[in-house]
Amino acid sequence: MTARQQILDTLFFGREPFAGFAWQDIPRDLQGWHSGHPYLTRAIGEVRPRVVVEVGVWKGASVVTMAKEMQRLGLDGAIIAIDTWLGSAEHYKEKFVADMDFEFGHPRLYRKFLANVCHEGLTDYVVPLPLDSINAYELLKMRGLRPDVLHIDAGHDYASVMADLKAWWPELAPGGILIGDDYFKAGFVQGLLGKEKWPEVRQAFDEFFAANAHTVFESGDGKCLVGKPR
Ligand SMILES: C[S@@+](CC[C@H](N)C(=O)[O-])C[C@H]1O[C@@H](n2cnc3c(N)ncnc32)[C@H](O)[C@@H]1O
């Protein structure tokens, strides 16, 4: 049995989430942020994971990057793609209205994500899990599913990032790799006003990994990569 089928059996009683989904009329739209980052493909190549967890999926651009690499390497593995598909606080802005694609006040992001995975021919590598981060963590822990590679890209405020790290880091398998999004070194500024980018994300990561053993901690181009000791 494939790793993906085992995950489907464990989480969805064997049901196939993509079955019957009419994706052809939904345009491919892989807008995202740092979604083709080299840390994502590097983690897949170094760990050769059976289970990948991404927390914070949006339209699926970073899932697609990792799934394509798993496909290229011929790995028996799947990405559990966790999101409420409701967006984050920062997405409630006029410029994101088209992306959120509200229907009666409710975003239609989930359909865009599913369609993108179908357009890319990657359904064999993806299992969507439409829960919030902490409920998903509880479910996976209950069912004994531990990630070998973990990508955290959900809430970007201090409390959310710290909660995600406290929940998910202990679940990462020994020797696994965590990638965190929107980690910028102190002093990295943007715009005319010289505003720091996502300082609360950095604060949470720096505090958490000052207190938790890890092998490597690298950062660049808006992500960090952390290794878990064996
Ligand atoms: C920045 S986007 C993810 C971008 C995506 N990884 C990419 O590369 O394109 C953040 C996503 O996190 C989701 N999100 C925010 N807080 C969450 C939470 N507590 N649990 C699950 N998903 C959450 C939002 O719905 C949104 O889709």
The separation of the N and C termini measures 27 Å
**Strands side by side in the biggest sheet:** 3-2-1-4-5-9-8
Number of domains: 1
Total helical elements:
8
- CATH-derived architecture: 3-Layer(aba) Sandwich
The biggest sheet amounts to:
7 strands, mixed
Helix percentage: 25-40%
Give the C-level CATH assignment.
Answer: Alpha Beta
Task: Specify the structural class.
Answer: alpha/beta
| Bound chemical compounds | S-adenosylmethionine
If you consult CATH, what is the topology? Rossmann fold
Mean pLDDT across residues: 96
Beta-strand proportion: 15-25%
Low-confidence stretches: none
Specify the overall morphology: globular
CATH H-level superfamily: Vaccinia Virus protein VP39
Radius of gyration: 17 Å
Descriptive overview:
The structure is a single chain. By secondary structure, the chain is of the alpha/beta class. The chain has helices at residues 3-12, 38-47, 61-73, 97-100, 109-119, 133-142, 158-168, 199-211; strands at 51-55, 78-82, 126-129, 149-152, 177-181, 189-190, 195-196, 217-220, 223-227. The protein has a single domain (3-14, 26-227), classed as 3-Layer(aba) Sandwich (Rossmann fold), CATH 3.40.50. It is 36% helix and 16% strand. The strands form two sheets. It has a seven-stranded mixed sheet, with helices on both faces. It has a two-stranded antiparallel sheet with strand order 6-7. Helix 3 (61-73) links the parallel strand 1 (51-55) and strand 2 (78-82). S-adenosylmethionine binds next to helix 3.
